[in-house]
Amino acid sequence: MNKKNVLYIILAAAAVIFIAALFFKTSVILSVLDKIAKVLAPIVVGMAIAFVLNSPLCKLQSLLRRIYKGGNEKIITVSSVVIIYAVLILILIGIFSLIIPNLIKSISNLINNFGDYYENFLIFYNKLKLRDQIGILSRLDGLLDNLTAVTPDWLRKTLTRTTGIIGGLINFFIGIIVSIYILIEKENMKRSVGDFLKVTIPPQKFATVSKYYRLIFSTFTKFVNGQLAEAVILGSLCYVGMVIFGFDYPLLISTIILLTALIPIAGALIGTIPSAFLLLLVRPMQAVWFLVFIIILQQIENNFIYPKVVGNSLGLPAILVFASILLGAGIGGVIGALLAVPVTAVLYAIVVEYVSDKKAVVNHAWENI
User: Fold this and answer.
1) What is the dihedral angle through the alpha carbons of 45, 49, 50, 53, rounded to the nearest 10 degrees?
2) Residue 83: pLDDT band with limits 50, 70, 90
3) What's the predicted TM-score (pTM) here?
């Protein structure tokens, strides 16, 4: 029995034991997996950071190679990583020194003034109710009676959770260290994985694995780069527009729009709902004008920004994009919605390639008849 067969037997036995343990001791296995996930969280964060920074790093490396022709590849790689992280640190300093304090101030101000905002909203609501001949608004009375008690508590919990996220910064900074190592050693790591696969799987399967690896990596890279750029552009345009038109809480609302815009297609709409509700409490007519503003901004984004920045690079029909988001959100929440589109794009590309190959074989067979 050769080493390859022994390896397959060990892996198969480990898989059977794991499935059996998962079936009979589900809670124990899930608890162990949860602990492992917490331990590995900094590594996962580091891999995610390295993945996002890999594209600009490769472009910077190409630029430095053109400038320093024949230069030492290791020095070029390390120099590129240092420059990329210097820029990243400057951006983070700007965020923490300018945006975060103002964001926390806006949330605190919203909580402190919520009572006044709610009273103003009730006055506006009662005026509308007097003009309501159908009785639609009367059905909302029960909901509004509970709103005073529920919303401030919800806002406080949201602020507490947002503040609690700061504790996760430890994983983030450890992840940065991990990502630096990954980016510097990525070629060696790639070579090691390639060597391992070459000695464990047949050449034909290795070619197939390499092809699908390039497909997955390319698809995720296009999606991540495009979606990040599109979200930043949309959030920036939202902030500028809100400042120009004098809307309240421009930084807070623009941040909500930016974060939710990371979810393709439906993201900005998801961010519009709490944003409009917030303005409805502050000044009801602002909510109406904000909806008009965000609809116009959405049209600009859908017709000009998204096609140019993200475009049709993923090659997915719109119906599949929408369906994948719904399915991903139902399975994995926000993370599922974020990963649904690139995963679907990869599966779609595999199916299209498979059909294309089979179609070529069938056509060739018919030609020989």
Assistant:
1) 180
2) very high
3) 0.63
